[in-house]
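Is this the right way to post C-alpha cells for a design question? Let me know if I should format differently. Anyway, here goes:
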C-alpha cells in the first residue's frame, strides 16, 4: 500500500477535499430543484389568442404576463405584443381599455419561472421609442454573465399592469 494513504490525517484530508469539491455542484443542483423553471419544451407552445388566457386583475385596465417567446400567458385588454428588436417590445392595448399609452402609468416586473436568467430587468419608455404613440414600449435586459453588465435580451418574461 502506498505510504501516502497509510497516514490517517492525509487520508482524512483527501476525503474532505473530495467532499468539498462536490459541494458547489450539489448546491447549484439544489437551487435548480428548489426553484424550477419552464423548460423550452413547456414554453415553446404556440401563442394562444389574446382572449384565451384571462388575467385576474379586477382593478386594472390592462394586465398581462408575457413569455419570452411572445406568448401572452395571461391577458386583460392586450390586443398584441410585438418584438421590434432584441429586448424591445411594443404592446398594443385594446381600444375598449380606454388607455392612452403616451400618458399611461405602466407597472412592470420580470417573471422568474419563464425567464432564463435570475439577473433581469424590465423598463418602459414614455417617449423616444420606435413603438409610436398608440403602443407601450417595453425593454428587457439580462446579465447572462453575472458581471453587472445588463444587455438587451429576449430571454426575459415580464408582467405588465396599467391601473
Amino acid at each position: 500500500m502506498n505510504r501516502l494513504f497509510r497516514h490517517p490525517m492525509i487520508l482524512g484530508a483527501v476525503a474532505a477535499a473530495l467532499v468539498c469539491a462536490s459541494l458547489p455542484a450539489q448546491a447549484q443542483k439544489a437551487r435548480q430543484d428548489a426553484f424550477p423553471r419552464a423548460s423550452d419544451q413547456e414554453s415553446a407552445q404556440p401563442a394562444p389568442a389574446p382572449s384565451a388566457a384571462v388575467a385576474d386583475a379586477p382593478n386594472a385596465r390592462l394586465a398581462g404576463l408575457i413569455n419570452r417567446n411572445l406568448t401572452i400567458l395571461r391577458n386583460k385588454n392586450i390586443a398584441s405584443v410585438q418584438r421590434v428588436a432584441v429586448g424591445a417590445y411594443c404592446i398594443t392595448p385594446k381600444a375598449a381599455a380606454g388607455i392612452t399609452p403616451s400618458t399611461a402609468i405602466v407597472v412592470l416586473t420580470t417573471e422568474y419561472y419563464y425567464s432564463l436568467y435570475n439577473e433581469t430587468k424590465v423598463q418602459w419608455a414614455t417617449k423616444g421609442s420606435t413603438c409610436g404613440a398608440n403602443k407601450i414600449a417595453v425593454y428587457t435586459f439580462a446579465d447572462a454573465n453575472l458581471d453587472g453588465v445588463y444587455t438587451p435580451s429576449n430571454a426575459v418574461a415580464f408582467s405588465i399592469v396599467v391601473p
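Format looks fine. Someone answered above. Worth noting: Confidence is low (pLDDT under 50) at residues 23-33, 41-51. The helical segments are 8-34, 40-43.
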